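Weekly structure sync, notes
Attendees: PL, DS, HV (note-taker this week)

Item 1: Heparan sulfate glucosamine 3-O-sulfotransferase 3A1-like
DS walked through the input record. Source organism listed as Saccoglossus kowalevskii. Sequence as pasted into the shared doc:
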Amino acid sequence: MAMERLRKSLLVIACLTTVLFIWRGQIAGNPENCICTEMVAVESPSVLTKSSLNEQIGDSSDTYLLEKSVMATDILENVGDIWDASVDKEAYLRAKYDNFCYKPEEPYFKHVQPLERSKLKQRGCRKKLPQIIMPGARKCGTGALLRFLKIHPNITGAPEEPHFFDQRRANLTTSDYSEKMPYSTDSQLVIEKTPTYFYRPHNTPQLIKDEISSDTKIIIVLCDPVRRAVSDYLEFIWREKRRSEKHVVGKKLDSFEHLVWDHATIRGGINQLNEMIDVGIYAKHLIRWFDVFSRDQILLLDGTLLLTDPLSELKTVERFLGLRSFFQKDHFSMNEERGIFCMDFPSEYCLPGCKGRKHPHVDDKVWASLCDFYAPYDRSLEQMTGKHFSWVGKCASQDQ
Ligand SMILES: *[C@@H]1O[C@H](CO)[C@@H](O)[C@H](O)[C@H]1NC(C)=O
Ligand SMILES: *[C@@H]1O[C@H](CO)[C@@H](O)[C@H](O)[C@H]1NC(C)=O
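Item 1 (cont.): predicted structure, written out as tokens:
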């Protein structure tokens, strides 16, 4: 059984490696395209050495066992006592504010008004580098996850995406980075999310390890790469429209189908050089994170589950971070009208909708090609991680 799994993993990863090397060849022949520099960098040979791949495959069965044992403790935990901060609003406010650095303000994930200087000092509040980094993937629900997590009394986080590693100017130091974090005490974990880190720059994992800490915990949310690409496109359109409103230029925008299709070859196909497509090749990017951080430092979440069952994903995060269990079933309820989860405790809060971005119907042929394109990468992802993702194998119908 185990041998069979291992053999399959090897086959799939060998396949992936071949694909990447063929791809690399294509890129090398096309140097004037500006996207290419980045793509070549992404596939630096160190990433795909045989030994590192073997290591990863060897690890995946361990991860699987780890996940099972975590489930078992979860059951015990639920039988145990419940933190009063989880059920009583006064107790929540005490846990969230009595020892920490900000004035209470709704919604409670916002930390806007710090206490007076003397009080900050007295409580040991300071700005420290993030211990947890959420590098993406873009459009998979990292923003929603961050808001929920920051409700936990022991978690605080950057109010905005710092983009420290991807847009950094030469003279920006780690103290500029910590300046972007909220005040926190030693009893709080600081988290930041910047959804571009997942895929660029290619050495972000190494930079985090070298410049921040080798103990940094990484939380990566992944979701259906086909739908992710469409969401990415909608955001792109939204930004372009906003920009043209400002500059009054009436530019006609290319359709999603046009942008993701490879027009350079006669046969056509999905254009993997397009960033909207590249981000969703999760296995390829994940290898670079697995190369630098140990497997128990990286938590992978299913962005689809985050929408349909946020509690289970939040409990997974609590266990991963070693925090006392705060989130409870009755903290969340489904808003049937909008089809999203809202928080009922400690105060009512609904995630913002998708800024009015309803997914358009994608040309069926292009949709089917996208499904075919990502299927082998999704299988590699499951083999590499020993984890099943809810969207895998369910791509065929786009109107679900
Ligand atoms: C250093 O950063 C400042 C802004 O903080 C900027 O004005 C300046 O041009 C930068 N210098 C270099 C050499 O990058
Ligand atoms: C959470 O914060 C409380 C203070 O409110 C502290 O006593 C406790 O140790 C913290 N838990 C962790 C895991 O840091």
